[in-house]
Predict the 3D structure of the following.
Amino acid sequence: PRDRFLDLGSGTGKAVMVAAALFPWAVCSGIECLAPLHAAALRLLPAFQAALPSLPLYKKAKHSPPEVRFELGDALGANLSQVDVAFAACTCWSDDDLGKLARSAEAMPKGARLIIMTRTLVSVSRCV
């Protein structure tokens, strides 16, 4: 089975679209709490989905393009139990937000990866 990618705080969807363009995920999704950024991602999505099958990864490979989707909601409330790779830029996140993320990450499947930028998590018990 192919992996599932989730961007926590996906903004206009750039990281989701780059991930979908560069790796044969089953699903690439993003959750954003700010309605204007979420709306921008939704506006870009149809053109991206139309172009995705013509990208080199999918044009001559046996993989079909991933399902790409965006959700308006609270990234810190996301269920990570079905996510193989979660990404969060964390630049504007508070220490409390990081604590919530660390607790949510405990639900990720064995072997899943959590990628964060600009901040450090200090309490994920399964880190190696």
